[in-house]
Specification:
Layout: H1 2-21, H2 23-27, H3 29-48, H4 59-78, H5 87-101, H6 110-134, H7 138-143, H8 147-154, H9 160-178, H10 190-193, H11 196-217, H12 220-235, H13 241-272, H14 278-291, H15 296-314, H16 331-361, H17 366-382, H18 387-402, H19 405-412, H20 420-426
Helix pairs in contact: 1-3, 1-6, 4-5, 4-16, 5-18, 6-11, 6-18, 9-11, 9-12, 9-17, 9-18, 12-17, 13-14, 14-15, 15-16, 16-17
Length: 427
């Protein structure tokens, strides 16, 4: 019975995840209804499961429930926003709850992991084809709520959520590319394992697709996060003590060199970026350095961040309890400004606790766990977070951890707990 429930839940979860990451399905009313039915079905099955998470909720589940409940109370009491505008955040936290329900056996989510590994490249390729047809600005157009954006999504062009959620997958793909033998791929579909050489090429090809997608989309923050994540993931492929000690020194050196030679670096990059959206941001940054103040897109981002910081400082305990005075460009800063110190900290902890947990449990795969932690520190600090992040962070990442050889060895050699009664009887 347990196996049947798990299989049904995985099927429902796969439907939900496919709807989240698929641009055409996101707008389809039938697909939306199926996704809603899938998440309700998963919840009902979890209620009847003998060891379901709702019978013994963990602190992340209680924290997520408290965050959602407080948000709903504010919505009902103040009515300053439409409920549907916060649905993405609720689904994101629902995916956290789903992971917590399998926290002792994340490998049971492997069918969903491999489904996503096969589905994501489809939408990366369709988005790249959309760039060829509609221009590299297509990803930016999708971000806006307009008829043109809906038309692009129906053509399979992904935008903000698809590109930024893919960044969380980079550390997983880096480790799979360079340490393939560390992964137990027996849970993969048989048709993939039937062609081992092609299967082996899957992670590097996916990594290349993400890199091309991010560079062509023209999201500056995505490029910054991608470079930082790749640097961390590649640096920690070998967990040597001297590498761990040298990393902060290297970061400090790059910061100092960047401060000294930033103008020269920008002048070299402007011709390379000519014809892309990056050239305007580079010129804004160059002008900002020359006049000693922010201008253009740099000024806009800086102003948004400062707006959230100032709103929080003015109302540190409870926040502004709405969207007024909030920059809407940093998930962490915005929630501090909107909800105050306690709920801002709660949101940050919920976003970071899983990478930190895996970092402590699996020190041998620091490349992957440290890389994901780097993304989840930088990305929500610099930009907003969507529900698509939850698919990779709370479903794909823990499964990738669970199929590493280190996770298997840790589970195999974990000493079973001995009850006090048994100790007394043995004595």
């Amino acid at each position: 019975m347990k196996l049947n429930i798990i299989s049904l839940q995985n099927f429902a979860l796969a439907i939900l995840c496919l709807w989240i990451i698929s641009p055409p399905l996101t707008l389809n009313p039938i697909a939306r209804a199926l996704a809603l039915l899938a998440i309700v079905t998963w919840g009902l099955l979890e209620i009847i499961r003998s060891n379901g998470i709702f019978r013994r909720p963990t602190w992340p589940v209680l924290g997520a429930g408290l965050f959602i409940a407080y948000d709903l109370v504010l919505w009902y009491a103040l009515g300053e926003w439409e409920l549907i505008s916060h649905i993405q955040m609720y689904i994101l936290l629902a995916l956290l709850v789903i992971y917590e329900s399998r926290r002792t056996d994340p490998k049971s989510l492997a069918p969903v992991f491999w489904t996503m590994m096969l589905a994501l490249p489809v939408w990366w390729i369709s988005t790249l084809r959309g760039f060829d047809t509609f221009g590299d600005h297509a990803a930016r157009t999708v971000v806006r709520s307009s008829g043109e954006a809906m038309e692009l999504m129906q053509q399979g062009v992904g935008g903000y959520s698809l590109i930024y959620s893919s960044l969380v997958l980079i550390p997983v793909l880096v480790l799979m590319t360079f340490r393939w033998r560390q992964f137990d791929t027996s849970s993969a579909p048989r048709f993939l394992r039937a062609f081992p050489r092609a299967f082996r090429l899957m992670p590097p090809v996916m990594l290349a697709l993400i890199t091309i997608l991010v560079l062509r989309a023209g999201f500056t923050i995505a490029v910054i996060v991608m470079v930082a994540t790749l640097a961390v993931s590649l640096m920690y492929l070998r967990t040597r003590p001297w590498i761990l000690l040298m990393a902060p020194l290297v970061a400090l050196f790059l910061v100092v060199v960047g401060q000294i030679f930033l103008q020269d670096i920008i002048e070299l990059l402007i011709p390379v970026a000519d014809g892309t959206s990056f050239v305007y941001k580079l010129r804004d940054l160059q002008l900002s350095l020359e006049i000693g103040d922010s201008t253009g897109t740099v000024a806009d981002r800086t102003e948004r961040y400062l707006r959230s910081i100032n709103s929080f400082l003015q109302n540190p305990l409870f926040g502004v309890l709405g969207d007024r005075g909030v920059g809407n460009h940093s998930a962490y800063l915005d929630y501090f400004a909107q909800r105050g110190l306690f709920f801002g900290m709660l949101y940050m902890v919920l976003m970071l606790y899983l990478p930190v947990r895996m970092l402590r449990q699996l020190p041998g795969v620091l490349s992957m766990t440290g890389g994901v932690l780097a993304v989840m520190i930088l990305f929500p600090l610099l930009n907003s977070v969507t529900m698509a992040i939850g698919v990779v962070l709370f479903i794909m990442f823990p499964v990738a951890c669970s199929i590493t050889s280190e996770f298997g060895n840790r589970s195999r050699y974990r000493r079973p707990a001995v009850s006090p009664g048994r100790r007394m009887s043995a004595a």
